[in-house]
Amino acid sequence: MVLLDDAFESTVAPALTSYIWLLRWCDSAQLASLTPYSPEQIERFCQSTFMLKHHDHGWYELHEAPALADLPYREHEVFAAAFEYSQQQLNRLVAEAWNFELQRWLYYLESYLELLSARREWPTIAKVLDQASSIPQVNSRQQQLLMLYNAIIQMRLERQYAVAQSLLQQLRDDIHLEADLLPMVINSLGTLAWFRGAYDQAIQHYIEQLQHAQQVQNWLYQGHSLLNQSILANHLQRPEQALELSLHALEALQRAGNRYREAHALYEVGSNLLYLCRWDEADSYFSRSAALYETLDTVGDLANLYWHIGFLKHLAGDLAASEQAYQISIEAARASVVPNDDSLRDSLAFLGLLYCSMHEYQAALAIYAQAEALARQQNNRHELALILNHRGDAERRSGAIDAAFAAFAESIAIIEDLRTSFRDEDTKLGLISTAQQVYEHMVVLCIERGDAAQAVDYIERARSRAFLDALQAGDVSSAAELSQQCANLAEIQAKLDQRTAIVEYFTVGVLGRSLRFLAALAERKSPILHHFSLEPALYSVAITATNATIHQHSFNPLNLTRGHGGHHRLLQPRILKAISQALIEPYEGLLSTLDLVYVVPHGPLHDVPFMALQTSDGNWLVRDENPAIALAPSATILVRYALGRPASSQQQHYCFGYNSVGDDALTYAEHEAQEIAKLVGGQAWTGALATDQFLRYAHDARIIHIASHCVYDAQQPLNSHLILGNESLSAQTIMDHVQIDTDLVVLSACVSGRSFVAVSDDQYGLQRAFLYAGTRSLLCSLWNASDVAALFVMDRFYRELQAGVRIAVALKHAVIAIRDLTRADIIKQFQIWQLPTSAIPFELDGQHNDSPLADPRFWAGFMVIGKA
Prior knowledge:
Layout: H1 6-23, H2 28-34, H3 39-46, E1 51-53, E2 60-62, H4 75-92, H5 95-118, H6 122-132, H7 140-156, H8 161-173, H9 182-195, H10 199-215, H11 219-235, H12 239-256, H13 259-275, H14 279-296, H15 299-315, H16 319-335, H17 341-357, H18 361-378, H19 381-397, H20 401-421, H21 425-448, H22 452-462, H23 465-474, H24 489-494, E3 500-508, H25 516-523, E4 537-543, E5 548-553, H26 566-570, H27 573-583, H28 588-591, E6 596-600, E7 628-631, H29 635-641, E8 652-657, H30 669-680, E9 683-686, H31 690-697, E10 701-707, E11 709-711, E12 721-723, E13 728-730, H32 731-737, E14 744-748, E15 755-757, E16 763-765, H33 766-773, E17 777-781, H34 787-802, H35 807-819, H36 823-832, E18 862-866
Parallel strand pairs: 3-6, 6-7, 8-9, 8-10, 10-14, 14-17
Antiparallel strand pairs: 1-2, 3-4, 4-5, 11-12, 12-13, 15-16, 17-18
Helix pairs in contact: 2-3, 4-5, 5-6, 6-7, 7-8, 7-9, 8-9, 9-10, 9-11, 10-11, 11-12, 11-13, 12-13, 13-14, 13-15, 14-15, 15-16, 15-17, 16-17, 17-18, 17-19, 18-19, 19-20, 19-21, 20-21, 21-22, 21-23, 30-34, 32-33, 34-35
């Protein structure tokens, strides 16, 4: 064994160590061809204590691994030379030596292909595959690896998605597929689904890939999966989730020792921090990524990085630095050995946005045209839709209204086509949230043109689409053509009689601001905000059987999102008057001609207690001479899934009640369920087993009444639940396990009408659950109602129903009645119910001693949703 002197060990040995570590096995001739050292130096090193020699084939390997920092940065060049050397060896060796060399060649091939893939050098991969195909395929791993990368080339370079799908599926179905290749195959299936716009399928593939990579302890493909999931989460407006995934990806890729992927992960972390408005941190990660990319000499990846730096500078208001960064990105993308069309497209699109924010609209349009052409060439429909939206905005600002309309229309058509291909509702919502602005642009454009029919069309297409899709997916009776579109104005009007109207509200510049990125721009008063979100405004369309009129309200809907105190804040006289003036007074003339008004709120208007609003004379909107009021998630859902359905064929009326236990126990919930059952000739289940009885019998009911506590979960709104016995009844449970054909469900439960409103205007909570489960109408409450008030409202409501009054009118009469109840009336009714009058909390309302339930907080939270 040879001992090395200090000079040799400090200079030559580290370099040779790093090469041999990469090569795994090598011979002295190979090292001589790869390194600048003499044969004597190489032989001296191979005979040292650093090395182990295999006697069977004469190869050397390291005695122990070097530190990662010692590895060479131009690994792809090392493996390129190693692959060429081994390929030449295979072409001249025979028999047993050939089989030994094949193992080494296959390792070099895999390593080289992975590095080329990380560098996105797809044409080089195609050439390598062509070379590799000349070697007889005697090894199953060899065959599988070549098929996999051939599929990747068909996908990445040739854009032959069907061919790629066929090859990948063959590998996926191969029961003999090598375990460590399986995550690579699933990763490629995910990427293929992504390229085709099937984001939900892509995410499922990446999740499955992660599980398999964890099983074989493959850090590289764990990082792959996490990074791809992060990018999709970012695309779907989930920046917190995207950041968490990208940080885990960075950790995995650092453990894998893959610096190309590490640089990409650093960049993705920076991107996610950017959209979370943590701009200083984003800049730090971008700098680290740039330094590593430059060391690795990957010009194409610098293009991707610099367009984000350009956007960061744009957000900071440094327009000159922003333009310079975009231009660097564009030049790098075009100069790359491998075309980097994704980065080129994105840089052009954001440069167009920069010019638009500088009011240089013609320059912006010219740049957008280039970005649009690339998106069309790539068939990247999601990015095309976003570019068309920005181009439409530039066209509108430059006065080209028809061109703007065409751009917005095409953008929406693409988004809706993509939406129909998604099965996962969260993915639909993410997609719609990225496109909410284009719907707002289009609605405002239609209103400015005075086109009520088209305004209604796009208003409907902008709201509750994920919910509508879910309803249509479960409605086997829906005509095929209806499942592809929303109701138009003619269809809506056909369902209305002469004494019924729909008032459909629409907010702009509000829903998107719930996204942290836009909220931060608004807080900083950034001028770029106006290119991502319109100025807050409120519009409405009043639809009757024969007419549709548009109104723009002089009211900032953002005011409804400010302040504290929840719904009760909106009941303060000053605030209630302002809301009433904005929402109701423009329609007072129409209201006098109607018996029923369906209100379709939008955005923050879902929190407005419409039953509490007032007319211009200061009187309540809910009074005898005014129409009854009902609400709906959208006009389409109303006319197709409520008004458009025949009455239930069921006959049973079931009541469920549970007082709960402890300090928050209700006093009259179980009594209410029993009294209502007596009143209507139904059956009551009360106590600890009420949930079990509901799940067993609800499908037989025409009317269901539930009196209980309710818990609204703002973080997980589908976990909102009714406390109905020992087991709670959640919104998710109802959607998953309950199918009903009811005319009416009554939730005499506090906050049962509360919902989380997504950027798409989809609502999540118990009201969504019961409408999805199959009820035509739902009566629920926006806030915590008094136990006593609920008892009186429900008693009068059902008496009105028994008299043949329609649902919304019955609630209207019940509300008016309890407003006028005196103390004596309440005591008398308690005696009739045989309840202790000592339990009546007359301190309910000290301001109305003669009418203890007159304050709107006792009655205005109740509302009817659906068929009225």
